[in-house]
């Protein structure tokens, strides 16, 4: 059994256990929650931007840190009171890879939906200069990111789809990966992030010893979007590098309002947050994380379907009252009839007004 699949099955079992562990606050009232990422990452900043916008409409959206995309995907699917999560779009392809012969994984995929597409993240592979392609990673030692992270997920899927078999896959974070590469302990490492990203700005990365691997495998290009890391994005990189990119998406679940009160309230929560993002999108682009500038709400990734509760929130007749909105127009007074006007004049003449 492949290491990625073993890890996936372990994660599914863990999340199923966590499903039952509700806090007293969750038991007492209906919460709205979004799973994001680490404390310094882009995902959590996006979550906070959305939460701040929702607060202006009287909606409390709790933002939670997580290990990354796979935890978020399974959390939205399994945890109560967790209606939204930010994930890399290839998490769906990752799960489908194992769904054909595993009922548990297949069930995890059912009902997942997209609320909005977000921005693209390029797949970086920093490697020794003598390695020139993905195929050259066969038999090498490669770091693929920490478990549950988007980098781990994408790196695992990329290697499997490209049929590349490193001698060892190390599950360590980007900072430790860079240190290991500089020390000659590994041959390459994956990192998925929107370019340019800070870690590759390090002056310790010597262009004579290291470079970014191009990614041009036809199978991968059918699953991912093409991407380019422009020349000069990093101090060691003088030429543009063709890579692949994975889109971050806001994920939700296909709640059925007619099923029970929990589904009805969850659907309403998704519709509310959808309406907030759509109606305050320009504000998010102006005041939120800079990556909002790259969000194209029409760029739906393949394999994902929009949720019905999302479309409900996008209905032109769906309204929320939010700070800064123009106040509703006051109803126009109905012109008084001639008879009523005469009556008022006569009353005033008789008893005063």
Task: Explain how this protein is built.
The chain is of the alpha/beta class. The protein has a single domain, classed as D-Maltodextrin-Binding Protein, domain 2 (3-Layer(aba) Sandwich), CATH 3.40.190. It is built from 13 helices and 10 strands. Strands 1, 2, 3, 4, 5, 6, 7, 8, 9 and 10 form a 10-stranded mixed β-sheet that branches. Helix 3 links the parallel strand 1 and strand 2. Helix 1 crosses helix 4, helix 5 packs antiparallel against helix 6 and helix 5 crosses helix 7. The longest helix is centred in the last third of the chain and has 19 residues. The chain is elongated. It starts with a helix and ends with a helix.
Short descriptors:
353 residues; alpha/beta; ten-stranded mixed beta sheet; TRAP transporter solute receptor, TAXI family; TRAP_TAXI
In short:
The chain has 353 residues and is α/β, with parallel strands linked by helices.
Helix share bin:
25-40%
Task: State the CATH architecture.
Answer: 3-Layer(aba) Sandwich
State the order of secondary-structure elements, H for helix, E for strand. HHEHEHEHHEEHEHEEHEEHHHH
Total strand segments? 10
Number of domains: 1
Oligomer: single chain
């Amino acid at each position: 059994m492949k290491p990625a699949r073993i890890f996936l099955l372990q994660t599914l079992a863990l999340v199923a256990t966590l499903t039952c562990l509700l806090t007293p606050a969750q038991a007492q009232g209906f919460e709205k929650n979004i799973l994001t990422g680490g404390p310094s990452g882009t995902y959590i900043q996006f979550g906070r931007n959305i939460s701040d916008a929702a607060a202006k409409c009287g909606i409390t959206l709790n933002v939670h840190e997580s290990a990354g995309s796979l935890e978020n995907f399974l959390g939205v699917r399994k945890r109560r009171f967790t209606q939204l999560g930010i994930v890399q779009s290839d998490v769906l392809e990752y799960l489908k890879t194992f769904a054909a012969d595993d009922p548990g994984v297949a069930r995890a995929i059912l009902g997942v939906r997209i609320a909005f597409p977000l921005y693209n993240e390029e797949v970086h592979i920093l490697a020794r200069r003598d390695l020139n392609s993905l195929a050259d990673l066969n038999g090498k030692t490669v770091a693929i990111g920490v478990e549950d992270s988007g980098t781990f997920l994408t790196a695992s899927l990329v290697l499997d789809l490209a049929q590349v078999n490193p001698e060892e896959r190390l599950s360590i974070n980007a900072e430790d990966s860079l240190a290991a590469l500089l020390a000659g302990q590994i041959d390459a490492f994956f990192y998925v992030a929107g370019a340019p990203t800070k870690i590759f700005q390090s002056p310790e990365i010597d262009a004579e010893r290291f470079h970014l691997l191009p990614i041009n495998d036809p199978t991968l290009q059918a699953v991912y979007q093409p991407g380019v890391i422009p020349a000069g994005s990093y101090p060691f990189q003088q030429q543009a590098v063709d890579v692949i990119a994975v889109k971050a998406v806001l994920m939700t679940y296909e709640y059925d309002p007619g099923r029970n009160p929990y589904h009805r309230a969850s659907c309403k929560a998704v519709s509310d947050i959808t309406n907030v993002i759509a109606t305050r999108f320009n504000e998010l682009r102006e005041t939120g994380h800079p990556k909002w500038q790259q969000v194209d709400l029409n760029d739906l990734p393949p394999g994902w379907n929009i949720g019905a509760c999302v479309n409900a929130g996008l209905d032109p007749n769906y309204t929320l009252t939010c700070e800064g909105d123009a106040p509703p127009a006051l109803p126009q007074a109905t012109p008084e009839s001639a008879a009523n006007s005469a009556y008022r004049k006569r009353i005033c003449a008789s008893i005063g007004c």
